[in-house]
Design brief:
8-stranded mixed beta sheet, 22 helices, Alkaline Phosphatase, subunit A, 654 residues, alpha/beta, 5-stranded antiparallel beta sheet, 2 domains, 17 strands
Length: 654
């Protein structure tokens, strides 16, 4: 406590020279101390990653710059009120207001920094838009945290309470302060302080103020996030969520006619409208079942270079169309839903599942099939309002939603709802009922067992490792549930009339030390059922190719606006392309006979180039190739097109 007392005395000795602005200046000094200590601790924790970039000193120095921006932002509202409240007439009000403001500010800084190690451990980045979005779902998120992150909860609460107690003690001298400046002195000096704070917030003499892109000084996104502080990261993410940033404002602009020319779209009411002529002509089109697996990346599939925890999937892959180089479009479940259900290309904005203009009259394969007499259904083990799923689905072609409240006596109930076993048992019951009713059906079943804190029933699998609650064990259980479901489906009358797609929404904890960790976008995909013949598709494919392919295999004829490829019409070794949205970076990968060329579009920075080696699973940055301009234009056009289609509401059927 002597150390704390000495620091307090020194800070107030300096701060008191600032008169009525003393508490804000004290907050600046304390905030710099807290944020710098936190950053040094995080750098020490992740020293290997930071040291590998060769930017250790810049991370720390630029971090101080970000901290000054953040602390100036925190002082902005009090500064705006100071010309009135800090006068002698209202000094008591100013004293109480600034006292409370500084204490709350310090506690908030400490809370966010205390939450940071757990968030980095899960998402490999400081708290960002995911942190903000999760605030809307306190029930699900608190249940997950309580079961899987108790240490982090107690640490966060403990540090916050300690910060509150210390902040009150620290602010005691201010409670007894007397007005030391005349009103005239206050009004003369206030503009200088306000302009200094405004300039600090802008932190740049360039055309644009400082933003996270300015501090992206390494190819490693996690290290770049260490330059920031968590308060700044959260505030900027919240700002972008409100703004729903257009892609054109992130990566640059391109004339409309050039976007259409490069992408093959047309200047028409529905620019991407296409007529599907199915590869499998059928008198009676098949039913469709999509099992969307939570976080089941290639890292969990032995034949794709992962750990051996999916034995059932390994057996089943020889019975259908197996994709060896399939890539997710993003890192969130809603992005996977967007790709698999709508065929929509990813953008830097949030998934269309959550955006306002896509809540109705936005194309989904459910909408197309429902218009053809299909019963369309979404089955989930948790609460379907999570991530806005229910609203999006019910507004765009789904006629029925089954969620947690519809399960009677489930085998197991965890933080995110019922187990995958319950989910797929319910799916089997529903499919039998639909078949008996004689109506064609499309069912989307979305799993959740492979989600922190990794809860599942005992006695189903031989654990891959100890302790039980790990991702490898949860995936092995999810694989068990798939195997049991497929056994029952094969013995059921609906099997011969139904095509099944088993695919991941994304990999777990997508992270890496490259601009886009492509190896963590690699996911398994399997199509089987009905008369599907075994095949290995070895070319690069994207999640957004799957809905077109499924409709073609079902025998559906008609129009759609999807831009994905019909893989069922291609040779299995056809060279392909994939697109991946990773935080603020957009990765475009093209397969060539000599390797996979990659261009990464970055917010506020020039495009970067690289080569992705499939065998080593590593992206190596390289000098721009001879076709760099064409590659960059192709990538930009393909990120601007969906932005245009969304904003003009042209991604729908006539």
């Amino acid at each position: 406590m002597q150390f704390f007392h000495r620091i307090k005395q020194n800070i107030w000795r300096v701060s008191n020279k600032m008169g009525p602005f003393a508490p804000l200046f004290a907050m600046l000094l304390v905030g710099l101390l807290i944020l710098s200590l936190s950053r040094v601790g995080l750098v020490f924790w992740k020293f290997g990653r930071v040291d590998a970039t060769g930017k250790l000193v810049q991370v720390l120095l630029q971090g101080v710059r970000v901290d000054l921006i953040q602390l100036s932002l925190m002082a902005l509202i009090p500064l705006l009120l100071a010309p009135i409240l800090a006068t002698k007439q209202f000094f008591k009000i100013w004293q109480k207001f600034s006292y409370v403001w500084v204490i709350l500010g310090i506690v908030l800084l400490v809370f966010l920094e205390a939450a940071t190690p757990g968030f980095i451990g899960e998402y490999d980045v400081r708290p960002n838009r995911i942190f903000v979005e999760y605030l809307k779902y306190p029930h699900e998120v608190f249940g997950m945290l309580w079961r899987g992150f108790k240490v982090h909860i107690f640490a966060g609460v403990g540090f916050s309470l300690l910060a509150f107690w210390l902040a009150r003690r620290f602010m005691q001298p201010w409670q007894f302060a007397k007005p030391s400046w005349s009103n005239k002195k206050l009004w003369l000096i206030w503009p200088l302080i306000f302009l200094l704070a405004a300039f600090t917030i802008r932190s740049s003499l360039g055309h644009r103020p400082a933003n996270p892109a300015l501090f992206a000084i390494t190819p490693d996104n996690m290290v770049n996030s260490l330059v920031l502080n968590s308060g700044y990261s959260v505030i900027y993410s919240a700002y972008n969520l409100i703004k729903e940033t257009k892609s054109s404002e992130v990566y640059g602009k391109m004339p409309r006619e050039e976007i259409f020319k490069i992408t093959g779209a047309k200047e028409a009411d529905f620019p991407t409208l296409t007529t599907l002529s199915p590869s499998h002509k059928r008198e009676k089109p098949l039913n469709l079942v999509i099992i969307l697996q939570e976080s089941l990346g290639a890292t969990f599939v032995e034949s794709l270079g992962g750990v051996p925890v999916t034995p059932n999937l390994e057996k089943l892959k020889d019975e259908g169309i197996w994709f060896e180089q399939l890539y997710a479009t993003g890192t969130r479940s809603v992005r996977g839903i967007e790709a698999v259900i709508t065929g929509f290309q990813p953008t830097p904005a949030d998934s269309t599942v959550k955006l306002s203009k896509s809540q109705k009259n936005f194309f989904t394969i459910a909408d197309l099939l429902q218009k053809r007499g299909y019963m369309t259904e979404f089955i989930y083990g948790g609460e379907s309002h999570f991530d806005n799923m229910r609203s999006f689905f019910m507004g765009n072609g789904f006629t029925n939603v089954v969620d947690q409240k519809d399960y009677k006596n489930p085998v197991f109930l965890g933080s995110w709802g019922v187990s995958d076993e319950d989910l797929l048992n319910k799916t089997h019951e529903q499919l039998l009922a639909h078949h008996q009713a004689g109506k064609p059906f499309f069912t989307l079943a979305f799993s959740s067992s492979n989600h922190a804190p990794f809860e599942f029933p005992d006695g189903r699998i031989e654990l891959y490792e100890q302790p039980k609650a790990t991702d490898n064990n949860a995936v092995k259980y999810a694989d068990y549930a798939i195997g049991e479901f497929i056994k029952k489906a094969k013995a059921s009358p609906y099997w011969q009339d139904t095509v099944f797609l088993i695919v991941a929404d994304h990999d777990i904890r997508v992270r890496g030390d490259t601009l886009v960790p492509i190896e963590r976008f690699h996911i398994p995909g399997l199509i089987l059922g009905a008369d599907i013949q075994p095949q290995r598709f070895t070319g690069v494919a994207s999640q957004m190719d799957l809905p077109v392919t499924m409709l073609s295999l079902m025998g559906i004829e008609g129009q759609h606006p999807m831009t994905g490829r019909d893989l069922s019409r291609l040779a299995p070794n056809t060279l392909g392309r994939a697109m991946m949205q990773y935080n603020d970076n957009f990765g475009w990968m093209e397969e060539t006979p000599s390797g996979n060329q990659v261009v990464v579009l970055r917010s506020g920075k020039p495009a970067a180039h690289g080569v992705y080696d499939v065998k080593s699973k590593h992206l190596t940055e390289s000098a721009p190739p001879n076709n760099a301009i064409e590659l960059e234009k192709r990538a930009l056009a393909n990120v601007l097109l969906p932005d245009l289609l969304y904003n003009e509401q042209r991604y729908r059927l006539p």
